[in-house]
Amino acid sequence: xxxxxxxxxxxxxxxxxxxxxxxxxxxxxxxxxxxxxxxxxxxxxxxxxxxxxxxxxxxxxxxxxxxxxxxxxxxxxxxxxxxxxxxxxxxxxxxxxxxxxxxxxxxxxxxxxxxxxxxxxxxxxxxxxxxxxxxxxxxxxxxxxxxxxxxxxxxxxxxxxxxxxxxxxxxxxxxxxxxxxxxxxxxxxxxxxxxxxxxxxxxxxxxxxxxxxxxxxxxxxxxxxxxxxxxxxxxxxxxxxxxxxxxxxxxxxxxxxxxxxxxxxxxxxxxxxxxxxxxxxxxxxxxxxxxxxxxxxxxxxxxxxxxxxxxxxxxxxxxxxxxxxxxxxxxxxxxxxxxxxxxxxxxxxxxxxxxxxxxxxxxxxxxxxxxxxxxxxxxxxxxxxxxxxxxxxxxxxxxxxxxxxxxxxxxxxxxxxxxxxxxxxxxxxxxxxxxxxxxxxxxxxxxxxxxxxxxxxxxxxxxxxxxxxxxxxxxxxxxxxxxxxxxxxxxxxxxxxxxxxxxxxxxxxxxxxxxxxxxxxxxxxxxxxxxxxxxx
Length: 536
Known about the structure:
Layout: H1 3-6, H2 10-20, H3 24-46, H4 50-59, H5 63-68, H6 80-107, H7 109-113, H8 116-121, H9 129-156, H10 163-190, H11 194-217, H12 227-232, H13 244-265, H14 289-319, H15 322-326, H16 345-377, H17 382-385, H18 391-425, H19 429-439, H20 442-458, H21 467-479, H22 487-490, H23 509-531
Helix pairs in contact: 2-9, 3-6, 3-9, 6-9, 6-10, 6-11, 9-10, 10-11, 10-13, 14-16, 14-18, 16-18, 16-20, 16-21, 18-19, 18-20, 20-23
């Protein structure tokens, strides 16, 4: 087959991918762009003067802040533009990387796993057409996002947010997306299942962020080995260095040159790394749908549980420095913190950190219940329901796993934050207090799960809309106070109603109210699931 025929049908496949993503990708771009612009507006309101900005620059020079945000090179002249690159480029880069990994895996490995790629390749489609179309589509999405962000930031008119810096900021985001698109393309050739490829991609993002954080705390050597580090080393809005993006182009080109030949040498549907062989006989746990639901998700839950423990420990160590680090900016963060009523500032920050942990914990909790939707899409539900398993028992099994996993995740976050928080505050009582604080957010996660069940029960094709609750919760917590949103808008988020322990006293009323709300959503979804047809 000549080179021209190897790419036959690429444009047709790309148009098909664009049609499939016509809702999902715009939502990714809109959410990320809105967050970036809202952050810029909040920075202008919170730090209007140079003295305010330099005050926060001093507090951001500590190791914990550098590890979470970016290198010190931005701190010398901490303008609004420098603040944007320092605090947003790395965090937004993580979101872009996740978007790119999911996009590539969905259109390559997932298509092979479901058998659709084999049907497509039986037609007049070249052997490189699918991977080429997916990668070109990923390039288009990242460049489109970069252009929208650059034009939007440059048009705001903030003095330090220059046009050159804005285009470099957008290019930095695109460079992260392209790097992880190429990496996901390689993982899609190595792994046999989409879940494994996506997991490797997410793990690579975590490794890249960790290398950047460790490098920025040291001599920056490791930062130069991370795509996220390359984007931040551009020093957008400060020195405006374009040459670090060359590293991204080289890295992406090498991975693509490796991935493309591999896609043609392996069998369709197979990965170059064979999955390990299973046991000859199933365990007793697999005798029922509950054991099966747990078995399918146990590794994901263990990984997320460990991640929540580390997240809690990392932020718990930060609690003891709250007074010193944020004392210089007075009340400028009051809109983001729970009311202290004369209490300890560290308690308010502990409550805020726990809220963030709860919203992050809602991600695997939602994944757990939506796993049933993916099983339905794959056609594996009909064989179960044709036997002695009822719909109620099947849905209940996944629901139990989701509800208990949310309890487990918040326990891990609370214990982790309590261990290091009690040490940083030199007060052992924080271990129990922060553990309770973590567990108190569990009903808010249950409401999110219940809403997902309701949407899935009545509108299975719109089940992914459940993620809107998580995005809205992040928006409310980070920008609700700064933008002075009406109270009724804030109350739409279940996380708003949880008592912010230890800054506030623990009360049972909102906990019981959230639990009752979750139960109503679950019962409504259960009724819809019983009544509708199962997708084939």
